[in-house]
Amino acid sequence: MFLITCPYCGTRDQSEFSNAGEAHVARPANGEELTDEQWADFVFLRNNPKGLFAERWVHTAGCRRFFNMLRNTATDEILAVYEIGAKPPKVTTVEPATPSGEAPIGSGNDAVKVMRPEEPK
Amino acid sequence: MTAQPNRRASGGLIDRSKVVRFRFDGRDFSGHPGDTLASALLANDEHMVARGFKYHRPRGIFGAGSEDPTALVQIGSDAARTDPNTRVTEQEIYDGLEALAQNVWPSLKFDVGAVNDLFSAFLPAGFYYKTFMGPLGNWMAFEPFIRKAAGLGKAPGAPDPDRYESINRHCDVLVAGGGPAGLMAALTAAKAGARVILAEETAALGGRLLSVDPDKVNLGDMAPTAWVESIAAELAGMDNVTVLTRTAAFGYYAQNFVGLWERVSDHLAPNDQPANLPRQRVWRVRAREVVLATGAVERPLVFHENDRPGIMLAGAARTFTHRYGVLPGKRVLVFANNDSAWEAAFDLQSSGARVAGIVDLRRDIDGGLLSTAAEHGISIHPGAAIVGTSGAQRVSGATVRRMSDSGGVEGPVTAIECDLLAVSGGWMPNIALFSQSRGKLVYDEDLSAFRPGQSWQKERSAGSAAATFDLDGCLKEGARAGADAASKAGIPAKAERPPKVEGAERPQGTPRVIPEIPSGRPRHKVRAWIDLQDDVTTKDLKLAVNEGYDSIEHAKRYTTSGMGTDQGKVANMNAFALVADALKKPIWQVGTTTYRQPWKPVTFAAMAGQHVGDHFHPRRVTPMHDWHKSNGAVFEPVGDWLRARAYQRPGESFEAAVRRESLAARESVAALDASTLGKIDIRGKDARTFLNRVYTNAWSKLAPGKARYGLMLGEDGMVMDDGVTACLADDHFHMTTTTGGAARVLTHLEDYIQTEWTDLEVYMTTVTEEWAVASLSGPDSWRVVAELCDGIDPDPEKFEFMSHTTATIDGVPVRVFRISFTGALAYEINIAADYGAWLWDKVMEAGQPYGIQPYGTEAMHLLRAEKGFVIVGQETDGTVTPADLRMDWIVSKAKGDFIGKRSLSRSDTVRTDRKQLVGLLTEDPTLMLEEGAHVIATATEPAEKPVPMLGHVTSSYDSPTIGRSIAMAMVESGGARMGERLWVSRKGGTPIPVKVTETDFLKMREDGDV
Fold it and tell me: Which phi and psi (to 5°) does residue B856 adopt?
C-alpha cells in the first residue's frame, strides 16, 4: 500500500487514489487525419516499462483531481508527483541492471534477493 | 487428571497457585495460567500431539513458539469457532479449552493413515505432478485417497460469530520484537519522545531473556525477568508508547507499511472474553522508521530418523524449562554442531534433568566447554553423529557413531537411551520481515546462514536478527538502533545505556553445518526430514535436483519443502544448503525462496476486520427505501445501490408481480423510484461545447427547457454510457447517467476537462444524491402530475415530449421532465432528496384514484424492452458501437470531433459482419429464450465443435402487453437479416427457431406485425 502525496491535498493512503495509466499521452487533435495504426497507437497502446515510468493518478476519494507521478515500477519507489501539464522533474533512481531486468535492489525478485560476495555491504 | 509430573517446583512465568483444566485428544489435563498448550502438555509428559501430513508418523513438539512446524491442533469443536492448524506452542490455555488432534482416524495414538508410512517409497517428490502427467486413470484412482489422507485441520463449518477489527496507526518508530534488543530500541526511541509501537509476538516481553537460567544471568544486578519488568513498567508509563503483546508483525509492505496481528482475547475462555474487545485485531501501521528485532530461529539437524516426538530444538527445551517451568525430559541427549547447545545441556542438567550425553559434529571443542561438561559429569561425543533413533510415539534412544575423515561414519555404534533428544544446528537470524521489506540478504559463511545485508526501506535490524548473538551486544545494538530510528524520524535521540550483563553465556561460535548428516546406511534407506510439516526428506529434495529442478523456487514447489502453514521457518535453511550441496554451488548462488507476507498465518477474519456482513461494502438506499421495504419490495443490488426489483403482494409470485406492474405502467399509471440514476450538474460557459465533445449527437441547438438523449462512447468508439441531459440554461445542464455508471462517467468527464481540454471552462458536480426522482408511466400519469404539481399544465398536448419545467408541490419546488424509458406517456418528478419520501407518499396518494402502482426494476427492464430501448451493460458489453446497436441516427456527421469519433471509422468498426442488435421472436410464442443463449444458423447443432455462433440473446422477457415472449440479441450482420429464420440453442433440447425482427415490439404490435 503506497503513501501518495496528492499535490493538492497532501499525503494520503493509496486506497484514496486510482491509477489512470501512462502520463503525457496527448489526445491527437487531428484524429480524422491519422491512419488506423496511428490512431490505434493512441487508443490502445501504452508503455509499461520496468523502471522509471510517468503515470497519472486521480485522487478519487479526495479532491478528484488528476496529477502525474514518477514511479519506479521495478521497486515501487515514488520519485515525484507533479501537476497535469507540468514537465516531469529530473529524478534519479536505481535502474534495471541485472540480466533479468531487475533493479539492483528493492525489487524483491529472485535476481536481487541475495547479495553477491563482491557487492559492497 | 494427571499431576503434571514434569512441572518444576519453581520458576517461569507460571502462576502455580491456580489450576487450569483443559482437554486434549479426548483426555483431561491440567496446567497453570501462563502455560501454552505445549508447555502444559509437556508438563503432563505428552510429547506426541500430531501426525505427519503425508506419512502420518507421530509428531511432537519441536519448537517453543511460532517457528514450530508440526505441533498443530484444532481448537474447539464448535462448528463456528473451531480453529484449525493452531500451534500448541502459541495457544495459551484457559479453563475448558478443548484441543483436538488433526488429520487422524480413529485417534491420535492409533491412526489408520499411518499405513502411508509403509508406502513412503511410492510417495516420492512430485508425486502429484507425476500422477497428473501419467495415465488419466491414475489421478482418478489416487485422488480420493490422497484428499482424505493428506491434510491438516478442518475449516469451520458455520459463520464466525466473533468480532474482529482493524486499526490504522502512524508512528515514528515501530519495533518488531520485544526481546533484549527490541526493548532497548523502544526505550531509547520512547525516551527521546518518539511515538513508538512495540510489537511482541508472544504473551510476554523479554524474548530469550525468559529462556535463560535466572540463577546465572543478571542485568544491572537484576534477574532477567525483573529487568524486563522494569523496562516494561517504564514503557507503560509513557504516553507516546504503545506496547502490544500477542502481536506479530506479519507483513512488511511498501513505504514502511507494516501489518501487525494482535490476538486480543484468544487466550481467554469464551466466557471471560471482555464484550468490548474484539477477538483479534489487525494494526495497519505506517511507521517513519522500523527496528527489526525479530530474533533468531534455531536450525534443526538433518539426520536419519530425526522426526520422532521428543526430538526438540535445544533452545526450545530451555524455553520450556525456564519460561514455562517445565522440564521436557528427564534423560536428555544433546546433538549439536555449535556451542549454544552445550550451554543448553548444562542448563538442563542444572535444572534437574540428567544429560545422557552431548554428541557434536565438531571434533575440536572449546576447552572451557569440555571442562564444564566434565564438571557436570556429562559424557561427550565430539566428532560424532547420531545415525538413528528409536521409539514409537516418543524417542527412546539414539545410536551414535564417530565421523570419519571422508565425511562418513565409522567405528562402533553406541546406543544411548534418552526421553528427549535436544538438537541444535546453530541459530539463523530471523530475516523474514527484512526480506519482505525488499532488503538484500547476505550469506554469512561463519554463520552458515543469511543475515540482513543492504536495506531498502527505512529499517534496521538489531540483536540476533542482525546476527549479534551475545546478550551485551544485543542490548547495545538495540539501543543504537532505537536512537538511529528516532533520529532519522526527526527526533534526535541518544542510545540508552544498557544494563551491565553478568553471567551471560557464550554465543554459538561457528556451527559446523552438514547438509545431510551421514548415517552409514544405504542411500535409499535414509529417512532424514528437512521439512517436518510437509513431510519432505532429503531424498525428496535430492530427487528434485536430479530431475532438473535446480532453481530453489522450483525445488520448493516440486517437493513442497517450505510450504504449508509454517512456510519452512526452521526448514528452509537446511533445504537451501542441501540443494546447494547437490548442485555443487555456493549457497548465495542458490539463493533463498521468497519471504512473503504473512510471516505466519493470519486469520481471514482478522484481515476482514469490521468489513463483514452489512459492513462489507457500503449499500446506498434512496430516500424512498423504507416505503419500498414496507410494501413488499424484493431488492436487487445495482452498483452500490439497493433497488426495488418488484413489489410482491401476499401470495403473489414474482412473475405475476412484474406482469401486474408492467401492465399498470402501460394501461393506467405506475411509479418507479428512479432516484439512483447518476446525475451530474454541468456548468460553465463552455458546457455546451463540452457536451458536443462527449456525446455522439449534437447539442448546439438544445434550448433551455428541453432535454435530449445521448450516447457516450469511450475513445475506442464503444458505448460506455447513456442518459438524458436537460438544458437548464445556456451554460447549465443536468446530465443523467446509468445507475452503475455514475462515478465512472464523472471520472471520465473530469479526465478530459482536467487533462485534455484544459481550455474549456466547465464545472461538474455530482448531484446524484441531491435529487429524489419519481418516474410516472402510463396514460394516466399526466393526470397524477396535474393533481400533484402547481404551476404546470402537464397535458401531453401542451407539455411537449423531451421538455422540462419547474413547478411546486405544496410549495416545494420540483423539476418535472417529460421523458420516457417505457415508451408510454411518462413524467419524472425531481425533488430535493430530503423530500423524497414525502414526494413518494404524495404520488401514491394522488395516483390512488387511477389505481397507481409502484413498479420495480424488473418491470422497468421489461417495459423498455417492449419499446426496444437498450440498457448499457445488458445489450452492450464494451465491444458495441452505436452502429452495432443500429443507432446510427444518434451519431452526428455534421459536428466536429467527439470522444470515440475516429474509432467509428476504424477498419474493424466498419466491418459489415459485426454483430448488430435485433429483435427475436420465437415461432412458438410461449417459448422464452434464455439470456446469453447462442444464436446459430442451423436447426440442429452441427456435430463438429465448436458450433459456429452468430450471436447471443441479450434480453428476454414474457411480455403481457405484446402477449408473447420477446427477445433482443446481438447477431452477426443482424440489420441485414430482417425476417430471416435462425435458431437459438438451448441446454438439453433442440435449438429453438426464431424470426429476426426490429426491436420496437410496441410499434410492431401497432402495425399488426406481431
Answer: -105, -175
What is the greatest pairwise CA distance in chain A? 59
Residue B562 CA to residue B566 CA, distance in Å, equals 7
* pLDDT tens digits, one per residue of B338-377: 999 999 999 999 999 999 999 999 999 999 999 999 999 9
* Mutate which: A15, A115, A121, vs B, most B CBs within 10 A: A115
Spatial contact of B605 and B162, defined as CB atoms under 8 Å apart: yes
Q: Which CATH number is B164-296+429-502's, of 3.30.300.30, 3.40.50.1220, 3.50.50.60, 3.20.20.80?
A: 3.50.50.60
Note whether B679 and B771 are within 8 A (CB): yes
Q: B619-676+770-880 — its CATH code?
A: 3.30.1360.120
Instruction: Specify the fold of B300-420.
Output: FAD/NAD(P)-binding domain (3.50.50)
How many Å lie between the alpha carbon of B442 and the closest alpha carbon of chain A?
A: 5
- Read off the pLDDT of residues B233-255 as tens digits, 9 standing for 90 and up: 999 999 999 999 999 999 999 99
CATH code assigned to A3-112: 3.30.2270.10
CATH of range B912-1010; options 2.40.30.110, 3.40.50.1220, 3.40.190.10, 3.40.50.1370: 2.40.30.110
Q: What is residue B258's predicted lDDT score, i.e. its pLDDT?
A: 98
**Closest by alpha carbon to B612, among B165, B281, B997, B145?**
B165
Strands (E), B315-429: 331-336, 354-360, 380-382, 384-390, 397-403, 409-417, 420-424, 427-429
| Residue type at B221 in one-letter notation | D
Question: Shortest Cα distance from A105 to chain B (angstroms)?
Answer: 7
Which positions 556-585 of B are in contact with A (Cβ < 8 Å)? none
Q: Which residues contact B1 (CB under 8 A, 6 or more apart)?
A: B21, B28, B29, B30
CA of residue B349 relative to chain centroid, distance: 46
Q: Of B262, B219, B93, B82, nearest to B158 (Cα)?
A: B82
Are residues A105 and B456, on separate chains, in Cβ contact within 8 Å? yes
The count of other CB atoms within 10 Å of the CB of residue B143 is 12
Domain ranges for chain A, please list them: 3-112
C-alpha neighbours within 13 Å on the C-beta side of residue B316: 34
Predicted confidence at residue B149, as pLDDT, reads 66
Structure ipTM: 0.96
Three-class DSSP labels, B108-156: CCCEHHHHHHHHHHHCCCCHHHHHHHCCHHHHHHHHHHHHHHCCCCCCC
Give me the DSSP letters along B328-347.
--SEEEEEESSSHHHHHHHH
Contact (CB<8Å) A76/B756: no
Nearest Cα to Cα of residue B22 among B81, B93, B71, B84: B93
Predicted local confidence at residue B720, as pLDDT: 97
**pLDDT tens digits along A27-62:** 999 999 999 999 999 999 999 998 999 999 999 999
Q: Look at residue B591 and give its three-state secondary structure.
A: coil
User: What does chain A come to in residues?
Assistant: 121
List residues in chain A touching B: CB distance below 8 A: 1-3, 13, 18, 20, 26-27, 29, 31-32, 34, 36, 39-40, 42-44, 56, 58, 60, 64-66, 75-76, 78, 84-85, 105-108, 110, 112-117, 119, 121
Burial class (CB in 10 A: 0-12, 13-18, 19+), B227: buried
Ranges of chain B whose pLDDT falls below 70 = 1-2, 132, 136-137, 139, 143, 145-151
Q: What's residue B1's pLDDT?
A: 47
Answer whether B252 touches A (CB < 8 Å).
Answer: no
Q: What is the pTM of this model?
A: 0.92
Among A57, A39, A15, CA closest to B901? A39
Query: What local confidence, expressed as pLDDT, does residue B136 receive?
Result: 67
